[in-house]
């Protein structure tokens, strides 16, 4: 994924042009993150013993002097997922270097994991918004907010309904993190048609077809299923 500020320039793959790498299962070394015992021993508290890696990312937030396109709007990750129950899903997000408000650390609204899933859409930002960076339009702006200052290797585990986002990167460096959404293999898929998730399903299916020639992807479930991998225990229900 390229940052929206570079979308129209010539594409030369490098640290400076890639905002995000997804589907790390295609890379043995990067996917090893999702199998680390140091991570899975905490994941298991949320998912139980049968653990699937559902969605993986390495995010390389670029320096952003003025456009603020590097911000990630406040959102709930469950918006992107066609499976439930939410209490058996957890995100592990690991800082690959020091992160604080200067380079766009995570910002979270504590306690919001008890809220239902809210409708998401693109925010109206002047400088532009990155592809699929949907946000919640109507969250409580006065809600207490915590900025997670983290050191390299620190990991935070959080619920898929927790409202969170990240700020713009005002430094010259690229802020790197690696993350994986894990779910219990006891989870089940849902059909998101007719729900607030229909907009993201449409976008993901169109993107899978257009950019990856993935003609068999007809819904969000197909897309997620093609990347899901068992990392511990047994593949029970999924
Ligand atoms: O790492 C970030 O900047 C935020 C990532 C995030 O919230 C997400 O991808 O859901």
UniProtKB/TrEMBL annotation:
<dbReference type="GO" id="GO:0048244">
    <property type="term" value="F:phytanoyl-CoA dioxygenase activity"/>
</dbReference>
<dbReference type="Pfam" id="PF05721">
    <property type="entry name" value="PhyH"/>
</dbReference>
<keyword id="KW-0479">Metal-binding</keyword>
<comment type="similarity">
    <text>Belongs to the PhyH family.</text>
</comment>
<keyword id="KW-0408">Iron</keyword>
<comment type="pathway">
    <text>Lipid metabolism; fatty acid metabolism.</text>
</comment>
<dbReference type="InterPro" id="IPR047128">
    <property type="entry name" value="PhyH"/>
</dbReference>
<dbReference type="GO" id="GO:0031418">
    <property type="term" value="F:L-ascorbic acid binding"/>
</dbReference>
<dbReference type="GO" id="GO:0005777">
    <property type="term" value="C:peroxisome"/>
</dbReference>
<dbReference type="InterPro" id="IPR008775">
    <property type="entry name" value="Phytyl_CoA_dOase-like"/>
</dbReference>
<keyword id="KW-0847">Vitamin C</keyword>
<protein>
    <recommendedName>
        <fullName>Phytanoyl-CoA dioxygenase, peroxisomal</fullName>
        <ecNumber>1.14.11.18</ecNumber>
    </recommendedName>
</protein>
<keyword id="KW-0560">Oxidoreductase</keyword>
<dbReference type="GO" id="GO:0046872">
    <property type="term" value="F:metal ion binding"/>
</dbReference>
<dbReference type="GO" id="GO:0001561">
    <property type="term" value="P:fatty acid alpha-oxidation"/>
</dbReference>
<keyword id="KW-0223">Dioxygenase</keyword>
């Amino acid at each position: 994924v390229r940052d929206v500020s570079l979308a129209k320039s010539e594409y030369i793959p490098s640290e400076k042009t890639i905002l995000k790498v997804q589907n790390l299962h295609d890379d043995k070394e990067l996917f090893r993150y999702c199998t680390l015992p140091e991570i899975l021993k905490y994941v298991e508290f949320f998912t139980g013993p049968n653990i699937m890696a559902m969605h993986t990312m390495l995010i390389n937030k670029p320096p952003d002097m003025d456009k603020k396109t590097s911000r990630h709007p406040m959102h709930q990750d469950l918006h992107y997922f066609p499976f439930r129950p939410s209490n058996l899903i957890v995100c592990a997000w690991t800082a690959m270097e020091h992160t604080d408000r200067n380079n766009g650390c995570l910002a979270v609204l504590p306690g919001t994991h008890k809220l239902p899933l809210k409708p998401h859409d693109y925010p109206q930002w002047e400088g532009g918004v990155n592809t699929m960076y949907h946000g919640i339009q109507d969250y409580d702006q006065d809600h207490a907010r915590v900025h997670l200052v983290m050191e390299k290797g620190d990991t935070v585990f959080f619920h898929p309904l927790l409202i969170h986002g990240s700020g713009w990167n005002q430094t010259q460096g690229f802020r790197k993190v690696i993350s994986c959404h894990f779910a219990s293999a006891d989870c089940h898929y849902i059909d998101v048609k007719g729900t607030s998730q229909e907009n993201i399903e449409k976008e993901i299916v169109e993107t899978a077809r257009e950019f990856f020639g993935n003609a068999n992807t007809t819904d969000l479930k197909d897309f997620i299923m093609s990347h899901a991998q068992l990392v511990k225990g047994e593949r029970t229900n999924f």
